[in-house]
Each structure stands twice: as structure tokens, then as C-alpha cells.
Amino acid sequence: MIPAEARARAPQQQEAARALFVDNLPAAQRTAGERRFDAAGARLHAALSSLYGDRPEFADWYARLLVAIAAAAAIRPASLQALDVQREDDPQWLSRAPPLGYSAYVDRFAGTLRGVRTRIPMLRALGVGYLHLLPFLRARAGDNDDGFAVASFEEVEPRLGDMQDLEDLAAALRADGILLCGDLVLNHVADDHPWAQAARAGNTRYRGFFHVLHDVAEVQACERDLHQVFPQTAPGNFTHVPAMGGWVWTTFYPYQWDLNYANPEVFAAMAAVLLDLANRGIEIFRLDSAPFLWKRRGTACINLPEVERVLVALRAVLDLAAPGTLLKAEAIMPTPDLARYFGSGDDAGHACHLAYHSGLMAASWAALARQDTALLRTQLRLTPALPSGCGWLSYVRCHDDIIWSVLEPERSRPDERAAIAAAARFLSGGPGSFAHGLSVRRADGEGVHGSNGMTASLVGLPEDPRQLADEQALARYALLYALAYWCGAVPLVYSGDELGQGNDAGSGETPPHATDGRWLQRPRYDETRLALAQVGQGTPAQTFALLQRLGAARRRLPASHHETPIEDCSGLDAAILLLARGAHSLAAFNFSAQPQVLDSGRAMAGDWRPLWPDVATAAPAEVTLPPWGCVWWVRA
């Protein structure tokens, strides 16, 4: 929330700032510019003055920022300006028709950006309306965290294409009704990025873009409060760089230098990157590693209040120059901490439009492993109500670990810590387990940090694509996706899941694959499986058709479904999750390997008709759910 004193200062500069912004727009854009500034200008000033207003140069810096925002708005392509106006006229456009998402690495999905265009028919057949392509900007030479160590925000990775290919792809996707989501890596740049190179060469301005500690005692003091993101592959949060005269803050990998957002020039530079990419056709930005943006000694440097203000300011920048563009928070944090990523107080609904519900994802896997929904029920209880126009991105798997720390509130209880550890052990395979995953230990050796594996491997689908999945493995797959599709405003399919594709068998062959367990769930798209799906054979045909039917059922849910909070109506049976959304949507999920009779309860009173699966199903009060079974109903 923006402090009251910052808001009180805003009117003093608003009139002049408004005139400055509007006067720097082309005449044809000034009416819209005035309207947008009246809606977002005060919010931008309040957020930025709360962060930087005590600097004597703030007024001049803020004026330069407004001129830069107006310049970006002035060159925004006409087609995107028209889209902005359309979405401004229908502010509920996303929640009124929430799309199905799909996430993929460009190279492993289709080779190049041009290759992605050839996948559009497949995406449409699956019902996808939102495509998240993982980092495709030019990455660091050598190790680069699979593209998240960005060496240039102005170039596409050459082996994937160029900026014209990006713009052409964005236009092609828009023509087919698919939103393009791209990563904006906010927290850090690669150590060979021009800003880092200039800093290393002694440029005073760019040295201020980074955090440098000059004393080993300072480093040790900070480390006591900080977490380990990659405890096995990149322990520690600082890297000694002789040319910088000390230790550079590197939360993730030593070659990823954290940006210093306490410096307003960093904010201005990243705002310019945001607007440039939005003008090239990216409609949604996944804000990578958002919780880590602000640093304060003596804290864990995660989820600090200033992070929300940075996000509110970035959203206001977009509202001024590219208001049809959305922000999505990649905040893999305990569920109660996520509300701030949507904005709070007067800023509620004015930060990110979407955020990952990683707690729901992790708890779903724990429920599957334990045949007990207690952790899921807790996550639903902890899920904050969202401002209008905002929503959760729900998912089964992604390119990263299942990070168990998102269940941190539960981990404080010894019994829940033991339950999470048992779930992680189950997913890593062994006697009695259907899963084939990999566990990652915590830095202190106490417990499990995360679990890795593709959905198909973790639910027990067969490795041979020509083999049909057994009934229970396919039911487990359907159960997890049915929960994600029912709960989220934007459910996400991870590339290869629709084909029942398993772990990358070659993930341990060469560095960095051998040291980073996340490569287990980053296989190349299997053309053989795609061909089998297209001719209706084997496991790929089963999983693809299942997601098609599930998507069709989701599109028939009531229009207000995703705006309505979830009510947990579960009874005493620990394996059953019974959820209602308003008076018109009901769903039951059986996280047990045994059939379960549904406890009717008050939520089931009335006249309901089944929506999923698309076969005749009895009314709720009469249902026995099969092993790993689920049913959706709507009011008749």
C-alpha cells in the first residue's frame, strides 16, 4: 500500500505532470492520454514518491520518466492502440472469458519463434487462448539459467529468431485469439549484460544499478537472514567480483546480478524495457522473481512492502501507455503472502492482474501422494479474496520444482512437516509409489526443498506412447487437471502434458543438466507423440482428448464462475474435496485409490446436472466417486 504521506504530496505536482505527459503525446492520442493520466497518474506519482521522493532530484527524474512513457505511447502500433481501447471499454474482459493457458520453451516446443507459428493449429485444437513462452531474449553466453540470465532486453536469442520474428508471431497469435505472454526478468541481469559490463569497467552510473558489499563481515551478516533459492547448485547470495571491488548480490546464480531498485534509474530502465516489449506485441508479462526486488539489510529480502509499490508503479506505467497489457506475478510464496501482488488498500486491483497459485499446486500433489486433502483444504482457506478483474493462474506442473516452502504455514506444525516430507518421498518413487520423480534437499539438509518431474511421470502414465494408460493412472492425471481447470481464472497446461510426455531421459547427461534437477521436466516436444495424438492412438490420444473435453466443459461453466470465491463444503472424509462457487457451480474430487460415497451435505441440495465428465452422472447426493474420480455440476 502506498503511504498516506506520499499520496498527500501527489496533488502538488499532478497538474504540471498531467500537462507534461499529454503535451508529449501526438494530438490524436491526447484525449485518451488525459483520461488515462486522470486514472493512473496519481497512483504512479504516489508509488514512486514513496520509493524515491526523498531524493532531491526526484522531480526532474519523474518529469523525464513521464516524457519517456509518452514517447513509448506515441509509437505504439495502431493495432495495439485499438486493442487498448477495446479492453478499456470492457474492463472485465479477462474474467468474463478467461482463457486456457499453455507454457513452453521456444526451442524445445518448436525450435524457433517461426516454428511456434506452426504449432498454432495444435494450440487452437486444445482450446488455448494464452501462450506463455519462457525466456526468449538474448541470454548470457554459457550457463544462463535456461534463458533467465538475460544479456540483452533488446534482442531475441539468435538461435530462436529476431525481433521481427517476435512481432510476426505476436500478430499471428492475436489473429487466432491467443494472448502472448513473455517473461520480464525483473530481479537481475546476466553478468555480461551491457549494464553489468559498464559497471565492471568502472562506470559510476551503472555501478549504482547493482548491490555491492565491500566487507566479508557484511556478507556473512546478510547471509544469516537470507534464504537459499538453489541450495544444491548455487549456495549463497553473493559473488566476489574483483572488478567491482567486493561482493555482488546474486540471489540466484553467480552470473545473475541483482538490480538495485532503490536506485530510480533502475526503475526507469526496466519501465522502458516493459514498454518496448509491449509495443512489440507481448500482451502479458510474467514478472519473474518479483518477491526479491527490494533489499533491506536485516531482513530476508523477500516480500518487502516496497515490492508492492514497484509493481503498482509498473502497472501505472502500462495504464498510461499500453493499458491493454497485463501483469502476472511469479511469486512462489506461501498463499497468505500473495494478496499484495494484486495491490492493497487504495491500490487493490492496481498491481498485477494474475498470480500463480503455487500453494494449490503443491498441496494437490501432497493430496495425491497422501490420499488426504487436509493440505488442500488449508490452502483454500488461506486463499485471499481478490479484487475485481484479478485472478489466479492455476497449474499442475511447470518448468520449475514443486517448491514445498509455499506450504510454509503448515510446515510449522510437526505433523504437517512429516506429511510434506512423506509426500516428497512418495513422488521420488520407491516401494508402493506410482510416481517417478526426483527430490531436492534443503540447504540445511533438514527436509526437502522441492520435487521435480513431468505430470505424466508423477501420476504413473506409461513411458511407451503407443501403450494405453491404465484407468487409474489416467484418472490421477484427469483429477489434477480437473482441479486446476475448475479453480483457476487461467489454468495452465505445461508443454508436453497434453501428450502424456514423461521425464526427460537425457536430463543428466551434460552440464548444466547434471546439476539442476529441473531439467527432468524440460524435455523436447515429442513429435512421435503428437502424431499419435493426431491419429487417435496410444497415451497421447487419451491425454489430448481428455484435456479437450475438460476445456469444453470449463467453457460451459457460469460466466461469473471465476469471479466468485470458492467455498469448501467437504465433509469428514479426508480423501474427498467438495467445492462450491456461488450457487451455480459444484465440484467433487476423490484423492483416494478407493471408491468414495459422497456425503451429500447442504451444498448439494437442489437440482444439479453433471458437466464433467461428459457421460451420464447421478445427482450429487447419489454419487459414488471412483478411485481418483471427480465430477463437476452446474445448476440445472
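^ that was protein a. below is b, sequence first then the C-alpha cells
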Amino acid sequence: MSEHHSVEIPLSDADWWRQAAVYQIYPRSFADGTADGIGDLTGIISRIDYLRSLNVDAVWLSPFYPSALADGGYDVDDYRDVDPRIGTLEQFDELVDLLHGAGIRVIVDLVPNHSSDRHAWFQEALASPRGSNARERYIFRDGTGPDGSLPPADWESIFGGPAWTQVEDGQWYLHSFAREQPDFNWDHPEVRADFLHTLRFWSDRGVDGFRVDVAQGLAKELPEQLPTKAQLKEMPKDGTHPLWDRDDVHRIYAEWRRVFNEYDPPRMAVAEAWVDTPERRAKYATPDGLGQAFNFDLLEADFKAADFREVIDFSLEQVEKTGSTTTWVLSNHDQIRHATRYGLPPRNGSPDKHGADWVIAGGPEEQLDRELGIRRARTATMLELALPGSAYLYQGEELGLHEVADIPDEQRQDPAFWRTTPESRGFDGLGRDGCRVPIPWTRGGSSFGFGEDGAHLPQPDWFAEHAVEAQDGVDGSTLELYREVLGLRRTLQGAEELRWDESLCGPDVLAFDRPGGWLTITNFGSDPVPLPAGEVLASSMPLDGGELPGATTVWLRRSES
């Protein structure tokens, strides 16, 4: 593997997260060190040099806890242990030490809205009578109808199907997601105390921060007479909704912040909070709360200059109100990869997920311009990495991976797929397996170098040309582009601000200056545009003399006049 050197941010820097480049690892699909087809901590440890070569500031580990994998690990059996199929606590400690030694911080996923149905507390609840303390840690209700045989309400879960499941003694429990994921009752003091224990458990082991799953869901207000599904949809999203984004949730995060501040430097957190307005999202990013919240607006934008500028301007306005910093995301474990989205026709305002129809159709090749998609993805990533704030990158995007759409039904794993019918199945019902396929390390082998005994999701033949082995040290490859610009980003990073250069901006062009005298220009169109004078620092695609080709971003240092 080629050598790569850059400036590392000191691990003692309390503000490291404000403009960090964070690389998301989906552990089960990153690297398999034990030859069982499932990625694990041993596999991640074996790739420390690779992570160092990427010049990222932190890694975010998706759930690695004991789990039945009813929801890809987001059904947690034990919040303070490692799934035996993934490793041990001792291996986790080794991984943290090695990453810190490489100048890379560690963020872990926390899933506080629900546990798994195998969690010790839920098993105790099932064995305990109605009204018991064990049941009060979750949300149990009597059924409706003459004999209580009907659910307490007609609510639907996020994954499809009913949101209430009946237990042997006739009561029902709430699960906003899969039935294997019972919702906690966050009014219960033992639930609150136990999660504070969990925060300290991982912080004491050296974890630098937490990504908080379904951060908007914890606090609930459920009256004796529950509203109907139709009534829920009509209720205001102003902090008083019974289930989602209640103002009460911020009292919980204020407790968490006091725990984070017990450490030096304080632990950081980022909320995954799907809320209706940016103003509501900003409440999760305050200094006395989690401190940062995911902004998915750029992920949902078409590859158009006007769409990107609108998102950037609005996002930067919002962070001024919180004192936080914005996050930029183009791909993650729940979304269609951006190389694929950009190779498909634009959404043009459609509320559907970009690329959903293509995935549902099985990924017809004639509809996808793979080369254009990767070119645009490289271009968008360079723009993203030039923006003030933190950038969250998803494993495999540095290889230019496309979405894997043609997974046979019988090999799919996402619970959303198995809980819907073909007639009702949209993209969410088809599942998220296509972006979770294990990534390729070598051109060949039973799993393209992922492990020695295949992979838990099928990998397509075209993975060979995208493998790390095929790109490592190859000038102009997507992998080398990521390494180059992430290294440059560290040396160029300045104050959290930008200034648009209106003399260069146009219908297809965005251009802005960052402190320190460097300029970013992105051409979203197909025709080349003139480049201003200056030293080219990096370019997403080869330049053509003094012109910036279509679908290309360039970073340059302005010539002094």
C-alpha cells in the first residue's frame, strides 16, 4: 500500500469534531477476520493502515453489540458488550488503542429508543405480571375490544405492519420499528440511569463520541385513550407530538451532556433526528444537548448548482443559531449510494427517494450511467469536503461503489423487506441491503478479499474493478482522490466560514473562498467553463488547460495580484 502523510489533529483537541472527516464503518460488511462471512473487529484491526491512509479524523462504528440481527444490529441485546460473532471487549479495547495510535478517534452507535426482545430487561418483563416494574421499563398496554384481543391503537411500525405485538398474558407492547425492537419507556428512572451507565462504560474505554440513533423518538406522552393513526398524522410537529420530537427529549440529552462533560476532552455526540423543520433539528445540536445533528439535506439534493447552493446557504444559517457546526452527508447505511443516484435521472422535486424506482425494478443497467454517476460523485464529494463543518463518509464511497440492486429475494436481510408484501413494497420495503454489501479489497477470491469464506450478502462481479487492490497507488483512481483531498483538507482547514464568489458563480457553477486563500469551484453542467488564475491543489477529474470540464470540482490557491 502506498504511503500517505498529512497533519493530524491532536487527540486532546476538544473541538476536533467541528470540522472532522468521519468514516462510517458498518462492521459486518467491512472486513472479515475470522472466515465466517461476517465482518468483525479483527477485520477492522487488520485494516488500520488502510484507515490511516484515508486521512480521516474519526471512524463511526455502526452497532457491534450482541444482536439477533432482526435489524442489522440495531436490535441490541446488551449495550455494554460485543457480539461474539464480531469480537470481544478486549478486541474492542485493542481497536480503540490502535485507532488512537493512528490519530483516529472513535464514535460508536447508540440505540436508545428500543432494545431487542432478547434484552435481559425485556425477558424479565415477559416473565413478570402486568403493572410490574419490569414491564414499566417498556411500553405495555392492555388491548382494546371486549376481550382485549385488539391492539391498543391502529398504529403502524416504521418497517411496516402493526406497531403493537401481543404477549402471552394478553397485554401488548409498543415497537416503533420491528417487533423484535420493543420501545423503552424513557419516563422510567431505571432506563435513564442505565443509559448514563452505558455512556460512561464506553467513554471510560476511550470512545470519543456517540452517534444517537432515532434521537427524536425517546420521549413519549401516551394518554389512556390513545389517538388513532389518522389522528397522529394530523397532530402538530411543534414539540408536543405524542411519539416524535417532543421537547421533553432534550431533558434527557441535558443529562447526557453532563456525563459527556465529565471527560477531558468532553465526549461529542451527533443526533440522527428525522424532524420536520431545521428549527426542530437545531434543538438537538445545542451545547447543552448532544451538540451536533445530522443534516441530510445535501444527501437529498439533485446534482444541480441551485439545489446545492440552497442547501448550503440554509444549513450555514441554521448553525449560526446553535453555535454548533453543520454535518454534510452524501451516503450512509440507510441510503442509495450517491454514485448511483447521480447516474440516474434527477428527482426534480419528487418526494420519493432518489433512485427508488430503479432499485425496485432490480437495477436495470440501461437506466444507469455508471461512469457519469462516479464522476459526479467525485465532484460532489470534493465540494462537500471543502465546506465548513464536518463530513460523514460511508465505507466504500472512496472506491466509487454503486448500489447493489439485484440481490435475490431469498438473500435479503433487511426487516423492512420481510414485513411488507410485493404489492405494498416501495423502496423502504425493498430494504437497505444494497448499500450494506461487503466492500471489495481484492480483484478476486470468494469475497473479493472481504474474508476467506464468502460474504453474508452477495457481491456482484463488477466489484473487481472497484477493489482497493485495483485502485491502490493508481493515479486518478477514486481511492487516491479521497486520500489526496482528505489529506489536503487537514492542512487547509480554517475558520468555519465561506464566501461565495459571485463573479464565478452561475447557473451551473458554484464557487466559494475559504479562509486561508483557497477557492473551490464546481461545474455542475456539461460544458467547460474558464478557470481563474491560481495554483491547482486538487481536481476531481483531469483539467483541460485553463478550463474546468463539466461535472468537475477543483480546489485552487488564488494567484496574488
